[in-house]
Amino acid sequence: MICVSIGRTRHKMMMMEHRSLSEKGAELVELRLDWIARTPDVTKLIKDRPTPVVITCRRPEDKGRWKGSEEQRQALLRTAIVSEVEYVDIEDDIADKIPRYGKTKRIISHHNFDETPDNLEEIHESLCKKDPDIVKLVTMANSPGDSIRMLKLVASAKVPTVGFCMGEYGVISRILCGKYGSPFTYATFSREREMAPGQLAFSEMTQIYRYDQIGPETPVYGVIGDPIAHSLSPLIHNIAFRHDKLDGVYLPFRVPKDRLEETLKEFEFLNVQGYSVTIPHKEGALKFAGAADQASKTMGVANTLYKDEKNVWQARNTDYDAALDSIRLGLDPEGKASDDPIDGKQVLLLGAGGVSRAIGAGIINAGGALTVTNRSRVRGEKLAQDLGCAHTTWENRGSGHYDILVNGTSVGMHPNVNETPFAQNFLLDDMLVFDTVYNPENTLLLKQARERGCKTVSGIEMFVRQAAAQYKLFTGKEAPLDVMRNTLRKGISAVAKL
């Protein structure tokens, strides 16, 4: 079950949102009295309530907005109890001052907005001694491992415990706490009114992560990177799971660069079955794996980790085939060529990161004549040396004659949509321009290329194809490619509106 928090300054708006949430399927709603500008009228708020409620009134020291006296605040909580609301949230330091009465259930809560302390179990034990029906323990996650510690506590708790972590590192605990026995988790009415750091919207929890369908045996997958909040991978994989009616959840795992191996070992508690891997972990993922395919070994990077039937981590690089197939699609849309259309083509590759390394290796193996250029000359020369291909300086990138231009840099990515890595006057009329940037789909580079009459392929195609290959490795099933493509486009459109 998901408890949806509402915080509005007017009674009328709080009641309207409560009805709206009920119509959208919400089963439990938290009414934050501390948000109301005037003296809260509990009786008015709970009369004819469309769902059960949790009454909460937070003090400023608990990141709340209550401006009255402590006596007035506690009087409101007592009023709610006498009115027999379903739940009242009582902070642990005042739990002894507000006795149990009637049918109302007591949520005894403790929040730490700075850290997940070492004595987490001691704090939980003290909460359990304050006559709770439910213990609520919420802390700030400062590392991925904090969420694991919290979920372990929830799983072992004898008293029903709502336990999760705040912040970006804590998002996974908000989504998975029910899997380990939490009576419910918390969400907000909308992302625009986040009540606590890392809180997700009710629509995200239900439509993307399908929280109420996550059970003890639900397989867990995810994307690891840093940063990771911007990633659209959770959106497209979870919607694909839903389309195929598969039991599974795909999460955003923020993992610092220097803590990959340590974190993946901590995540063994979650029994994760597969990871998509993005910056800065593609080299680390390859080192972590127990085995890897030849392409990953050749390139020195992997963008996928998955467990085989023997529970051994396997590394793969799905960028490789996805990029080549995208280029081939642009050169030969109907697939009529008997030979590889890349063979013999002059190709200029912009960038020297992990994606560029994968694409470069693929082009060479397909018979293309590759030239690498990069803003950092040292990195560009190093990649060219590793691949055994030509190199040109960034300043001279527009002086050659190329059949194919590939942008493997992030130039032009949202929100910097008015930038391009290759001036329009550098473009040639008969050139194929492939931009690996997928947000926005129509980058400035691609717009200017079409104006010059070039053939173009957007990063949407590569992103979807590499994700589809991961999906098959994870699930053993062919991915719903069109569903993923349409979902990604909608996701990009939503991000563009923010």
Automatic annotation (TrEMBL):
Annotated residues for binding of shikimate: S231, L232, S233, T278, N303, D319, Y438, Q466
The record's annotation in InterPro entries points to: Aldolase_TIM (IPR013785), Aminoacid_DH-like_N_sf (IPR046346), DHquinase_I (IPR001381), NAD(P)-bd_dom_sf (IPR036291), SDH_C (IPR041121), Shikimate_DH (IPR011342), Shikimate_DH-bd_N (IPR013708), Shikimate_DH_fam (IPR022893)
Instruction: State its Enzyme Commission number(s).
Output: 4.2.1.10, 1.1.1.25
Q: Does the keyword Transcription regulation apply?
A: no
- Report residues binding NADP(+): G351, A352, G353, G354, V355, T436, G459
User: What organism is the protein native to?
Assistant: Gimesia chilikensis
Q: What does this protein do?
A: Involved in the third step of the chorismate pathway, which leads to the biosynthesis of aromatic amino acids. Catalyzes the cis-dehydration of 3-dehydroquinate (DHQ) and introduces the first double bond of the aromatic ring to yield 3-dehydroshikimate. Involved in the biosynthesis of the chorismate, which leads to the biosynthesis of aromatic amino acids. Catalyzes the reversible NADPH linked reduction of 3-dehydroshikimate (DHSA) to yield shikimate (SA).
Question: What is the protein's name according to its record?
Answer: Multifunctional fusion protein
Q: Which gene encodes it?
A: aroE_2
Mind telling me which PANTHER family this protein's record contains?
Answer: BIFUNCTIONAL 3-DEHYDROQUINATE DEHYDRATASE_SHIKIMATE DEHYDROGENASE, CHLOROPLASTIC, SHIKIMATE DEHYDROGENASE
